[in-house]
Amino acid sequence: MTGPAAFPHEGHVPVLRLGEVLLVTLQGDLYDSTAERLRQDIGQTVSDSAVEVSGVVIDLSGVEVVDSFMGRVLSDVAAMTRLLAAQTVVAGMRPAVAITLVELGLTLPGLRTALTTEDALRLLGAEVSVPSRDGRPRGERP
Amino acid sequence: MTHSTGDVSACLPIHSDLDLVRVRQHVRQMTARLGFGLVEQTKLVTAASELARNALVHGGGGQMECTAVTSGGVRGLRLVFSDQGPGIVDLDQAMSDGYTSGEGLGMGLGGARRLVHDFSVDTRRGSGTTVTVTSWISRPPGPREAP
Ligand SMILES: Nc1ncnc2c1ncn2[C@@H]1O[C@H](COP(=O)(O)OP(=O)(O)OP(=O)(O)O)[C@@H](O)[C@H]1O
Ligand SMILES: [Mg+2]
């Protein structure tokens, strides 16, 4: 069983900056327009930043479905950030989602994966303190 | 033979972004209620998302009919996506991975077929497209179990 249906998530997904890394946490079921806008927001943030962005972490642990539309958005973000010598890491993809993506035939080129956001940040060498036992929100600044 | 159980059938419109979300949520709820495993739920929801988006983007909008079915004692969920759009001119080409007439990845139709147990397309130039998919809770019934 899954939990109660996540409330439709329309509008804006915040792009958080942690030092040189951008962190995006996706939650629930996204409208196509929201995913589309997220791609633009990330592109804008990466190219406008006065401070260099070395990586983008997309936390998918709260996402139950990734179809070809969302897959394309993720691939586009990866391609975009690669042009600027940055990397995109997808974190926390659910096993059912990963299995489905393989059968759908989406290989998501250019995307690295990590089990958790903490792992993803470590992979990017981000200097972010990783809260562990005290239950503080992940990625919170020290 | 496939029998509809009737009482759990629903018809959802596909005319907007929001309708795609509703389609996914409805299929999720139905598969969960029928007892599909998490992976099978996710596969059918993802296939539904692809087919509903095709009806919206390529077919100019349409609808999804969702019916619980049983066959040889096996329960399943049948989804029928229909639109009155231009139809698919070359179905073999449309089904092949990577073909798109727009700017998609061209993985929707072929991918959806891989994600479900039964898949069929009925399309005619100028009069629309109907895609019917069914997934079963366990294996689809073999020939021996068929009535
Ligand atoms: N309902 C439909 N009505 C008309 N044409 C369709 C329909 N569904 C699919 N097609 C045609 O088949 C092609 C392949 O569909 P498919 O879903 O595989 O790829 P796509 O929609 O172009 O991209 P995506 O990977 O984003 O789904 C489409 O580009 C379109 O030309
Ligand atoms: Mg498609």
UniProtKB/TrEMBL annotation, chain A:
SUPFAM superfamilies: SpoIIaa-like. Residues 11-124 form the STAS domain. InterPro entries: Bact_StressResp_Reg, STAS_dom, STAS_dom_sf. PANTHER family: RSBT ANTAGONIST PROTEIN RSBS, RSBT ANTAGONIST PROTEIN RSBS-RELATED. This is STAS domain-containing protein. It comes from Streptomyces muensis.
TrEMBL record, chain B:
It comes from the Bacteria. Signal peptide: none annotated. Transmembrane segments: none annotated. It holds the Pfam family HATPase_c. Residues 39-139 form the Histidine kinase/HSP90-like ATPase domain. SMART domains: HATPase_c. InterPro entries: HATPase_C_sf, HATPase_dom. This is Anti-sigma regulatory factor. It comes from Streptomyces muensis.
